[in-house]
Amino acid sequence: MAAAGGRGVGVGDGDRAGRRLPPHSPSGLVLQTVEMHTGGEPLRIVPRLEAAEEAVAARGLSLLSLRREVAATQDHVRRALVHEPRGHADMYGAVVVRGGAAAAGAHLAAVFLHGAGYSTMCGHAVLALGRFALDYGLVAAPSTPETAVQLRCPCGPVTAFVPWDGCRSGNPVRFHNLAIDVPGHGKVVVDIGYGGTFYAFLSAEQLGLDVCSSKTRDLVNAASAVTEAVKKQFKLHHPESEDLAFLYGTILTDGKDAFSEEPTTNICVFADEQVDRSPTGSGVTARIALQYHKGLIQLNQTRTFRSSTTRSLFTGKAVKASGLEPPIASVLILIPLQEARFGDYNAVVVEVSGEAFYTGTATFTVEEEDPLKHGFFFK
Predict the structure, then answer these.
(1) 27 class by beta-carbon count within 10 Å (0-12 exposed, 13-18 middle, 19+ buried)
(2) Largest CA distance in the chain
(3) Distance in angstroms (rounded) separating the CA atoms of residues 149 and 129
(4) DSSP letter (8 states) at residue 206
(5) Is 243 helix (H, G, I), strand (E, B) or coil?
(6) Each residue of 200-216: pLDDT tens digit?
(7) Which of 350, 249, 267, 226 lies closest to 41 in space, CA to CA?
(8) Which positions ≥6 away from 268 have C-beta within 8 Å?
(9) Per-residue DSSP letters for 153-197?
(10) Which has the closest alpha carbon to 134: 164, 173, 103?
């Protein structure tokens, strides 16, 4: 708001003494971000992180190696942006990386950030980053009416298909994943699926809850108990890297896995009890894969998935299969669309679609003398 007789002072403007506002330490962090959300789930995008770029340029790090490097040497950046006072317990972020071995020829690569650390895949972030790549000029010659944006995630390559009118990206954005089934484990019937990261799936009814009407806190507690039980009772393996062999969280569903034109509802509880506000893109992929391999849906039957928290919607469908009999186990793998197998596993290509929106931009600063400069975690 402008002062009487003068103009307002904006963020980054100087005062009469020529100082930059807000004040920050010369050696402190200054982080520019682009703010988005997909189905209500936030995404704080860091377009550039010099330390990450230098590590890729100097040492030729792969994206999985860069993820380890950022966790070991730049975790203060994650804490500063994701934790309070700049973030909150359920904040989510992505550091964009361009070029080098990390991107491996893709338009951009991403290191995903959350309250407890670093994930290997995030569907809602992929949908938002597809728009970001077009609007911020990371794709040299986008095509109308839709552009294929090549992204590299720690789990592997993903292609996002983004509407483009020649000036601005639009919605809905969709992406393709490849998936197969994993058997359930434990005293309740649990399916384990891999959508770039591993999830446990089960109906909330098995735990005496209703995913649509039970209190979110009760659903979170129950999902967290399942996550811990699976971690103790079942050892995960990934055919390419042990960095990918961990259980990210549990998705509770309404149990409506048979094909229907009506939405099916779920809630994803991941990392340290974070709740996804969206229907969870990688989770939708794995659910479609499970439904297809159980014979509950057919190719190109579109299902709608609803978040139990925000009621936002994603759609998903199986678009290509290996043509072989369903395997005993399945796991979602992100590899090029033309492939419908991963090693010895039968597979199905899944398409997920949703809407991502910009909410603003921000500049975050750090004063070295601030005892909470790198954030704090409270829930």
Answers:
(1) exposed
(2) 76
(3) 9
(4) G
(5) helix
(6) 999 999 888 999 999 99
(7) 267
(8) 199, 249, 250, 251, 275, 276, 279, 280, 283
(9) ETTEEEEEEEEB-SS-B-S-EEEEEEE-B----SSS--EEEESSS
(10) 164
What lies within 8 Å, CB to CB, of 275 at 6+ separation is 90, 216, 220, 267, 268, 269, 309
**Positions marked active-site:** 122
d(CA 277, CA 356): 13
Angle CA 256–348–223, to nearest 5: 40
Q: What is the DSSP string of 141-154?
A: S--SSEEEEEEEET
CB hemisphere CA count around 232 (13 angstroms): 8
Sign of CA dihedral 195, 198, 203, 205: negative
Q: Which residues touch 252 (CB under 8 Å, ≥6 apart)?
A: 202, 203, 204, 207, 209, 211, 219, 222, 223, 266, 267, 269
Tell me: cis bond preceding 22? Omega within 30 of 0 counts.
Answer: yes
- DSSP single-letter state for residue 2: P
The closest of 243, 239, 256 to 178, measured between CA atoms, is 239
Low-confidence ranges of the chain (pLDDT < 50): 1-16, 178-186, 324-340
What residues contact residue 338 under an 8 Å CB cut-off, 6+ apart? none
Both structure tokens of 169: 């990206």
pLDDT attached to residue 18? 58
CA dist 366 and 80 (Å) reads: 9
Q: For CA atoms 256, 257, 263, 268, give the dihedral sign.
A: positive
Q: Given this model, what pLDDT does residue 341 score?
A: 52
For residue 80, the one-letter residue type is: A
